[in-house]
Amino acid sequence: MDTGSVQSASQRDPSALSPLTVILANPRGFCAGVERAIETVERTLKQMGPPVYVRHEIVHNQRVVTELERKGAVFVDEVDEIPPGSVVIFSAHGVSHAVVAQARERALYVIDATCPLVSKVHKSATRFAEKGYEIVLIGHAGHAEVEGTLGRVPGPVHLVECEEDVQHLNVRDPQRVAYVTQTTLSMSDTRAIIKALRRRFPSITGPDTDDICYATQNRQNAIQTLAGEVDLILVVGANNSSNSNRLRELGERSGKPTYLIAEADQLQPQWLRGVKRVGITAGASAPEVLIREVLTELGRHRRLSVTELPGPVETVKFALPEGIAGKT
């Protein structure tokens, strides 16, 4: 052993030779909507055989997408890329009425894997619109769920991303305004925007319950608890995953260095300098295997002691689309 190099490393970072406590958030990773979407693709492949086309990523995680591609799923950006008469699955994020119509025109066999909680938002917004309310959608422009919701609601829909946007809203009747939200946002962000909407439109109405899904709430609560226990937070999830990015933001707001990584090889050893306790969580579309790989990578740099925070047990289970498949 080169003791000189070890001493040098120790001098540069005394923590390099000390054990690293890793605390896992709970709950973390897959939610019921993601599990349902993935199982829908797998069941359809078994029942109908490949290729099965999927419009957009079934969930926002490249590891999941790659594994389903290996089994015969073909991911496309738009319906017009799919051969007429083929099987198509709509992703968990939902689609617009226009996409449904395009699928019908191509005689596609459609299976809708839209998360039931996203469908609930669609139905809520549609009910408000049919009653003559002008709809405000709180969400992020360009996100697949937002695009689907915008295309599901009859009449005008105003997208707001921040409190400042509220001040620029121009509606027909300030007494007839309703709001809905993207399901994967930060609770603190939506709360502030809803307060701004209520100040601007005192008569505004909204859903009976919070649109932020139970899994998003649970994971956000868990990372806030985790932040009080650790020096550094790693969020495992894709860069294009809204709920994973919200977890990163919450970690940063807690004052703890927080990094979003899609794969274990993105871990940077310098992040661990001076760190004694690392917290790990995962977005709702990140499989548990990625957590295990991150632990393995951490173990290459430090001796680990791994513990898990207590948390609520999620028992939600969504039924698969009726008959797995159905025609448009």
From TrEMBL:
UniProt cofactor(s): [4Fe-4S] cluster
EC class of the enzyme, as a word: oxidoreductase
Binding site for isopentenyl diphosphate: 60, 93, 143, 241-243, 285
UniProt xrefs under InterPro entries: LytB/IspH
Top-level division of the source organism's lineage: Bacteria
Binding site for [4Fe-4S] cluster: 31, 115, 213
Keywords: 4Fe-4S, Iron, Iron-sulfur, Isoprene biosynthesis, Metal-binding, Oxidoreductase
UniProt-annotated binding residues for dimethylallyl diphosphate: 60, 93, 143, 241-243, 285
Keyword Iron on entry: yes
Reactions mediated catalytically: isopentenyl diphosphate + 2 oxidized [2Fe-2S]-[ferredoxin] + H2O = (2E)-4-hydroxy-3-methylbut-2-enyl diphosphate + 2 reduced [2Fe-2S]-[ferredoxin] + 2 H(+); dimethylallyl diphosphate + 2 oxidized [2Fe-2S]-[ferredoxin] + H2O = (2E)-4-hydroxy-3-methylbut-2-enyl diphosphate + 2 reduced [2Fe-2S]-[ferredoxin] + 2 H(+)
Cofactor note: Binds 1 [4Fe-4S] cluster per subunit.
Residues that coordinate or bind (2E)-4-hydroxy-3-methylbut-2-enyl diphosphate: 60, 93, 143, 183, 241-243, 285
Pathway where it operates: Isoprenoid biosynthesis; isopentenyl diphosphate biosynthesis via DXP pathway; isopentenyl diphosphate from 1-deoxy-D-xylulose 5-phosphate: step 6/6; Isoprenoid biosynthesis; dimethylallyl diphosphate biosynthesis; dimethylallyl diphosphate from (2E)-4-hydroxy-3-methylbutenyl diphosphate: step 1/1
Annotated TM spans: none
Family statement: Belongs to the IspH family.
Function: Catalyzes the conversion of 1-hydroxy-2-methyl-2-(E)-butenyl 4-diphosphate (HMBPP) into a mixture of isopentenyl diphosphate (IPP) and dimethylallyl diphosphate (DMAPP). Acts in the terminal step of the DOXP/MEP pathway for isoprenoid precursor biosynthesis.
The name this protein goes by in its record: 4-hydroxy-3-methylbut-2-enyl diphosphate reductase
Organism: Serpens gallinarum
